[in-house]
Specification:
The chain has four helices and two strands. It is mainly α. Helix 1 runs antiparallel to helix 2 and helix 3 crosses helix 4. About 0% of the residues are buried.
Length: about 160
């Protein structure tokens, strides 16, 4: 039986292979097709395959994260709540709740202003707010990570 490290390594290699094949075919087969309405723009032939890959990867990641969180919280014992004087359970709940709160807050604060991209107006409120949510959440998490590193470095010097 394979251990977890080997399984995750194989999954990573298979995913990298699939992504490499999809992107190579995207750029090598019909990438320079001119757009019907405006020949100044490209209309790659295999855009649909790249979009399907992105959807499958996003949904797969979300499902894996939810299942992983559910299994981790279900398997958690009361005796594991404090490990080596570190409140592991409280940290896990805080990180999960904080991540969900940041996602919800950035979704609610997202802009609904229509955008013109390549001459096409995009005005769907849900997708505009969702795009803002991911951008603002990523920026907030990067800022929090940088702050945590700086605070950790300052404490280490004392």
């Amino acid at each position: 039986m394979l251990d977890t490290k080997r399984i995750s390594g194989w999954v990573l290699m298979v995913l990298i292979g699939i992504i490499a094949v999809v992107f190579c075919t995207f750029f090598l087969i019909g990438y320079d097709n001119p757009h019907d309405e405006n020949p100044a723009f490209n209309a790659p032939r295999l855009t649909g395959i790249v979009l399907v890959l992105a959807y499958v990867m996003t949904i797969g990641t979300f499902v894996t994260a939810v299942v992983s969180l559910a299994m981790a919280f279900r398997r958690r014992d009361k005796k594991d709540s404090v490990v080596n004087n570190i409140p592991a359970t409280r940290i896990a709940y805080t990180v999960t709740g904080g991540g969900a709160a940041v996602l919800l807050l950035t979704f609610l604060l997202g802009s609904t202003t229509p955008m013109n991209i390549n001459g096409t107006q995009y005005a769907q409120t849900l997708w505009l707010k969702t795009a803002d949510m991911f951008i603002y959440t990523a920026a907030a998490m990067l800022a929090a990570a940088i702050a945590a590193v700086i605070i950790s470095m300052m404490r280490a010097r004392r």
